[in-house]
Recover the amino acids of this structure.
């Protein structure tokens, strides 16, 4: 093998494992033994320069190692972990791997709703008066209303584009934040790192984990899975937070989703991130609902918080409140802009993170003729969710060894920056856009009798040799379960 080819091959290997190495540094333990983790395949999977499949595969592998740490505490044994790049990439293709059975017995992809198509038509980068670009977000009715009221326009692409063209981008970004709507100015990656928010995040790990209180070590109950008996209180909606809960469920946790009938949802996202979970209605803004939520917290191991920063705290469920209710609790915060900084109190979504961090700019240069463009998948959402579960499992292992309460923080902007650190691919024009039918058949799960009909879904994709990942029950109807924990 000549020297030039050897150097190229070594660079390729380092690039394909850089994300995993970064996550193992956060784990802070002895590296997994040779052969414990296997990655197969390579990008591109989607028409984007970003290494979506390889990065997601390395996140999955890190989650597998974290689950393996917990399994070793339980059993004294470790197991092999494997992931396919194309399978990992398929998990970020929202809705594209869920099929519904027709009366004739055939299965077809469930089409996206008109509401989702309308949101996508508005939530795009639009040119501003000062030659920049701005992306408004209109995912939920009340957030769309705030955007439209500020812009004084109608809910059409033409109207919203014309209104944004009358603003300077930075002024609009501040105005959107001031009315508690969501949106962001399109920046380059370099401009983002020079911005105080980008600079703040660049100094912090992609998964922040802090011990915030003392408590006794907690042993695990008996069980057949790494997270058997672990109780997850899932206070999240729409992709990143629910994906965190889904990941923990696949390793054996009891995930109880808590929502209320009046809270807006995106049905297709609920369907695709609720596999294996339970769901209850509980309005913590009422006295009785808050009292019941406090009881659930007192017996939980993990709380996933996907609300706007400060929202739970305003109702008596901030981090300090939760730690008093349940010493030894692990709190996972999933938001857009991270743990602090000048934008730390703002809400946002995947598309907003892509806009502000430079992803839209790079995607546009690559595939959009220079016009900023969103990537073809919600990669920041799904990455942040899996990273949150990785941090939660690391915290569980530390709690088992040394006790303590822990706060884990992940964000969509940090996930975007994580993807950017992995470099790019160039030949993506013929990317397949997903896994093959043959590979899908290896992972598919049929769910019969759900509230959405008979479904055929992409099941868990991470291979664990001794404790295969699984969904313990079919996808629930929202509010179909009582607000109680299952016996350990």
């Amino acid at each position: 093998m000549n020297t030039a080819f050897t150097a190229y091959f070594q660079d390729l290997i380092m690039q394909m494992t850089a994300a995993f190495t970064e996550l193992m540094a956060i784990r802070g333990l002895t590296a997994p033994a040779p052969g414990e983790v296997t990655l197969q395949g390579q990008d591109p999977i989607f028409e984007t320069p970003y290494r979506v499949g390889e990065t997601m595969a390395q996140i999955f592998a890190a989650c597998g190692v974290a689950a393996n740490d917990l399994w070793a505490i339980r059993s004294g044994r470790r197991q092999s972990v494997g992931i396919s790049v194309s399978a990992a990439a398929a998990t970020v293709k929202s809705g594209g791997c869920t099929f519904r059975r027709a009366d004739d017995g055939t299965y077809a992809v469930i089409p996206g709703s008109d509401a989702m198509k309308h949101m996508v038509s508005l939530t795009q980068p639009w040119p501003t008066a000062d030659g920049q670009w701005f992306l408004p977000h209109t995912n939920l009715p009340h957030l769309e209303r705030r955007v439209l009221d500020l812009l004084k326009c109608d809910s059409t692409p033409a109207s919203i584009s014309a209104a944004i063209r009358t603003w300077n981008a930075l002024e609009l970004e501040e105005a959107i934040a001031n009315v508690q709507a969501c949106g962001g100015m399109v920046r380059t990656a370099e401009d983002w790192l020079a911005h105080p928010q980008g600079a703040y995040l660049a100094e912090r790990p992609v998964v922040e984990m802090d011990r915030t209180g003392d408590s006794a070590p907690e042993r695990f109950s008996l069980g057949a899975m790494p997270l058997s008996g672990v109780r997850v209180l899932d206070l999240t909606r729409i992709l990143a937070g629910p994906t965190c809960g889904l990941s923990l469920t696949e390793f054996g946790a009891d995930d109880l989703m808590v929502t209320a009938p009046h809270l807006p949802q995106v049905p297709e996202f609920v369907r695709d991130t609720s596999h294996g979970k339970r769901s209850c209605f509980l309005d913590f803004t009422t006295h009785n609902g808050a009292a019941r939520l406090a009881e659930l917290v007192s017996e939980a191991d993990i709380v996933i918080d996907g609300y706007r920063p400060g929202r739970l705290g305003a109702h008596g469920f901030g981090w300090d409140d939760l730690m008093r209710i349940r010493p030894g609790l692990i709190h996972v915060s999933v938001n857009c802009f991270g743990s602090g900084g000048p934008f730390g109190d703002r809400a946002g979504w995947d598309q907003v993170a892509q806009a502000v961090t430079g992803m839209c700019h790079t995607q546009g240069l690559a595939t959009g003729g220079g016009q900023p463009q969103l990537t073809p998948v919600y990669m920041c959402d799904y990455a942040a969710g899996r990273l949150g579960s990785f941090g939660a499992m690391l915290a569980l292992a530390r709690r088992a060894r040394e006790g303590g309460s822990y706060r884990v923080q992940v964000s969509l902007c940090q996930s975007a920056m994580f993807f950017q650190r992995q470099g790019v691919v160039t030949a993506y024009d013929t990317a397949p856009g997903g896994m093959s039918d043959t590979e899908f058949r290896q992972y598919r799960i049929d769910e019969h009798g759900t509230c959405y009909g008979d479904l055929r879904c992409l099941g868990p994709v991470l291979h664990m040799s001794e404790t295969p990942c699984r969904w313990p029950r079919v996808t629930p109807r929202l509010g179909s379960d009582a607000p109680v924990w299952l016996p350990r």
